[in-house]
Amino acid sequence: MKKWIAMAAALVFAAAGFVFAAQRAWGPGWTHGFRGPEGHSMSQRILALLDNDQFRSEVNLTDDQISRLRQIVTNTEKSNIQTRAQMRVDGIDLRQLLQSEKPDKDAVMKKVQQISELRGQMMKNNIQAVLEAKT
């Protein structure tokens, strides 16, 4: 049963990470993350599932397991929000660099690298959450 729970958590976090990684870097809504039809984030949907009595009984989760998974989801969500915020700020900076008459190529490429590193950090955060859920 524990193995099933870990696999389910791994799939959920991996899906969220891959969806985010596949999103375009530009355009409206690129930082909204993976949202369902009602606009709920993946984290909100996972937390709602953990609160669902039917789900809890079907997968036979203990209160300690629920608490631990809830903490993992919450910590990951907080970290991803902070990372996305920094990505948005860096995106604004990049846009300003590109709007100049003669953009500084080195500064532009440095900013692109910073944004890329933040995306990588977000993927690492999501994978770390999967690994934590498996232990």
Topology:
Elements: H1 2-22, H2 42-51, H3 53-59, H4 63-99, H5 105-134
Helix pairs in contact: 1-5, 2-4, 4-5
Structural summary, described in words:
With 135 residues, the protein is an all-alpha fold. Helix content is 78%, strand content 0%. Helix 1 runs antiparallel to helix 5 (105-134), helix 2 (42-51) packs antiparallel against helix 4 and helix 4 packs antiparallel against helix 5. The radius of gyration is 18 Å and the shape is elongated. The two termini are 13 Å apart. Mean pLDDT is 80; it is low at 18-32.
Q: TL;DR?
A:
The chain has 135 residues and is an all-alpha fold. The protein contains 5 helices and no strands.
Task: Name the poorly predicted regions.
Answer: 18-32
Beta-strand portion reads: under 5%
Quantity of strands, as a count: 0
Helix fraction, binned, reads over 70%
Which characteristics define this entry?
135 residues, mainly alpha, 78% helix, elongated
